[in-house]
Inverse folding.
């Protein structure tokens, strides 16, 4: 199962639509937290919002996590040792107030287990790649540095 999340603040129809199309073409089981997306998505197991216990259960059960470039999704994947695919929102497309998610993925693109998709085609290629490397938060100064970098991007 693939677990997709858009966060809790804004819908992300471009991303959710791409996931629905990919799930339909490829026969993938995708559970998606969709936060306000109202379009028909027949190929997704949709949840508007998830309580923390259910969210954590989906993270544990997923083979891969895919989401916007939000710190919560990144940290959840790292704590669970799951691969994460980031599909950043773009302010230029009206999806956020600034381009901080593009800055976040640029800063994290070299981290093992963090996979970046800037297009629907890249997203589909990653979702159909077997055995993506998992992302693991390191229990060291590197972990602290990563968390600090993520927090700095969110605060910007």
């Amino acid at each position: 199962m693939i677990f997709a999340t858009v966060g809790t603040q804004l819908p992300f129809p471009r991303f959710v639509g791409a996931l629905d199309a990919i799930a339909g073409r490829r026969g993938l089981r995708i559970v998606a937290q969709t936060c306000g997306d109202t379009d028909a998505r027949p190929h997704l197991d949709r949840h508007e919002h998830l309580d923390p216990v259910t969210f954590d259960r989906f993270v544990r059960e997923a083979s891969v996590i895919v989401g916007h470039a939000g710190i919560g999704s990144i940290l959840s994947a790292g704590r669970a040792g799951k691969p994460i695919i980031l599909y950043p929102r773009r302010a230029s497309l009206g999806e956020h107030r600034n381009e901080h998610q593009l800055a976040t993925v640029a800063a994290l693109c070299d981290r093992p287990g963090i996979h970046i998709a800037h297009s629907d085609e890249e997203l589909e290629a990653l979702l159909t790649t077997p055995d993506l490397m998992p992302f693991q938060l390191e229990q060291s100064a590197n972990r602290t540095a990563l968390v600090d970098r993520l927090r700095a991007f969110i605060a910007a």
